[in-house]
Amino acid sequence: RPRSHTVTTTSSSFTANLSASSSTLAYDREFLRTLPGLLMVTEIVLGLLVWTLIAGTEYFLYPAFGWVMFVAVFYWVLTIFFLIIYMTMTYTRIPQVPWTTVGLCFNGSAFILYLIAAIVDASSVTKELDSHNYNSWAASSFTQNKITSCYAGNTYFSFISWRSRTLQ
């Protein structure tokens, strides 16, 4: 007795949409030549320096340095994330997200929390506390002041971008 084999194929709209939207990502070479791009790279380099200077010490014995470490690592990771978004121009593919507002909130919060962390770090560095870690903590305090000014600059540029977008 012969068997009949029937094969039915269907096409999903999901796969059609997926193949249509999975073209190559754009790469914006010019972003790193802008002042916000340069500030972002500087934030990443200085942020890495801050948290490695602190991570090389016994920071976990002092809660103030734990806070500084949290801020440094948290914003270092987020800054890398935003750099990737800007470099690959992902923001153009997700127009539902108000990127100018997100950038302003990110840079503003980074500025405020880094400012607080820089004050905490500078006020916690004393020779009496732990002379073995003094130089690393002092260097991290100096570096945090520089990175705070970078985030302040990016907050300014984000505000200008946000303001020009809201006035349209």
Automatic annotation (TrEMBL):
Residues 31-163 form the MARVEL domain. InterPro entries: MAL, Marvel, MARVEL-CKLF_proteins. GO terms for molecular function: structural constituent of myelin sheath. PROSITE patterns: MARVEL. Keywords: Membrane, Transmembrane, Transmembrane helix. It is found in: Membrane. Its main location: membrane. The keyword GTP-binding does not apply. It is a multi-pass membrane protein. One of its GO terms (cellular component) is membrane. GO terms for biological process: myelination. The chain crosses the membrane at residues 35-54, 60-85, 97-120. This is CKLF8 protein. It comes from Indicator maculatus (spotted honeyguide). The gene is Cmtm8.
